[in-house]
Amino acid sequence: MEIFGMHVEAGKKMYKNVKIGELANFSDFSIPVLVACGAHEGPTLWMTGAVHGDELNGPWALRQFFWDLNPQQLYGNIVITPLLNVLAFADKNKISHIDNLDLDQQFPGNPNGSYTQRIAYVVFNEMKKWANFVIDFHTMGHVFSSTPYTVSKDVPGVDSIVTDKAFKLARIFGVYPNCHLNLATAGGELPGTTSGSIDITCLHHNIPCFMAEMGAGGRWDEQAIQVIRDGIDNVLKYTGMIKEEYKKPGKQMIITDRYFLRCNHGGFVRMAVAPGQLVQKDEKLASIYDFWDERETMTAKKKLFVIAVRHEPVVTTGDRMGFVGCEWHEVEW
Ligand SMILES: [Zn+2]
After folding, report:
1. Cα distance between the two ends of the chain
2. Could you give the CA distance from residue 106 to residue 118 in angstroms, rounded to a whole number?
3. Judging by beta carbons within 10 Å of its beta carbon (0-12, 13-18, 19+), is residue 120 exposed, middle or buried?
4. How far does the centroid of ligand 1 lie from the alpha carbon of residue 307, in Å?
5. Which domains does the chain have, with CATH numbers?
6. Among the four 88, 212, 214, 222, which has the fewest Cβ within 10 Å?
7. How many angstroms is it from 52 CA to the middle of ligand 1?
8. What confidence tens digit (pLDDT) does each residue in 187-235 have?
9. Which stretches of 207-320 are DSSP H helices?
10. How far is the CA of 54 from the centre of ligand 1 (A)?
11. Pairing of strands 304-310, 278-279
């Protein structure tokens, strides 16, 4: 295959730093690209990491996966862009200081745009030629602790066959909580969830894509890294890219609505719940303290599933205390 200006022969793996542009100090900045061209014909799976620069579990798991991968046994191709927002990565931040744009709101990008828009353009230009399906690895922000979950989206105007394929791939990834959001009706979503993201741009180009939210930012979580390895493995088996039987995911939770818990007061927060926990109505979620009083007690307004909780203790009015599912059902595969 010919991709990003490199020729990869069947049965081989290659690595390249693809130049995006130059810094003011005359050095180049580039993104790493890993390609495995299978010895046998098949589809192309594309996987991305660190579209937000401080989300590190995906990049490391992808690196380990790639070096263990034997392209002689592979049906199809694997393209990995493990570290998309390289300057945000160097900043140890979600976005880069160069233009302060969220890369996951800039797809399909602009070849004449700013730093972030050019990365989106260079990547998506190849992605739309090659990808038959895409997994985009994220984490929650670095102030949280989170249980691994997937996100697939029902986007107005997207072919329902593509939506269903993305949803199936997300489920075969194998984790218990899976968010499946109808963007026509979903409530408390952040802007990146609704436009310019990798997943939505792929869906609009008829490429099934889901997001895997694997742990929290700014650190490695060995459990989340293993979940990623197992998930990729099962997707490869399910899609026939590796000729082995896939594992049925069993019971899974499909979350159809979710929101961030936000505090009304500032101070120190002590969380009363943990990621992965089911919480009943009126159960305590968190308390905000000053040096004399408990300023606020947050309780559940209804039955909730806790996706993530804040572990960073210092909060201002309106800060996010946690992320919860508020509507869901269980399914079995
Ligand atoms: Zn992210």
Report:
1. 35
2. 9
3. buried
4. 15
5. 2-249 (3.40.630.10), 257-332 (2.40.50.100)
6. 222
7. 5
8. 666 655 668 999 999 999 999 999 999 999 999 999 999 999 999 999 9
9. 222-238
10. 8
11. antiparallel
Distance, C-alpha 142 to centroid of its chain: 14
**55 CA distance to ligand 1 middle (Å):** 6
Residue whose C-alpha is closest to residue 235's, from 178, 163, 165: 165
**Which amino acid, residue 66?**
F
**Residues with CB in 5 Å of ion ligand 1:** 52, 55, 138
Mean pLDDT for the stretch of residues 304-327? 96
Whose CA is closest to 120, among 137, 132, 103, 134?
103
Distance 192 CA to ligand 1 centre (A): 9
Q: 10-62 pLDDT, tens per residue?
A: 999 999 999 999 999 999 999 999 999 999 999 999 999 999 999 999 999 99
Q: What is the whole-number distance in angstroms between the Cα of residue 330 and the centre of ligand 1?
A: 26
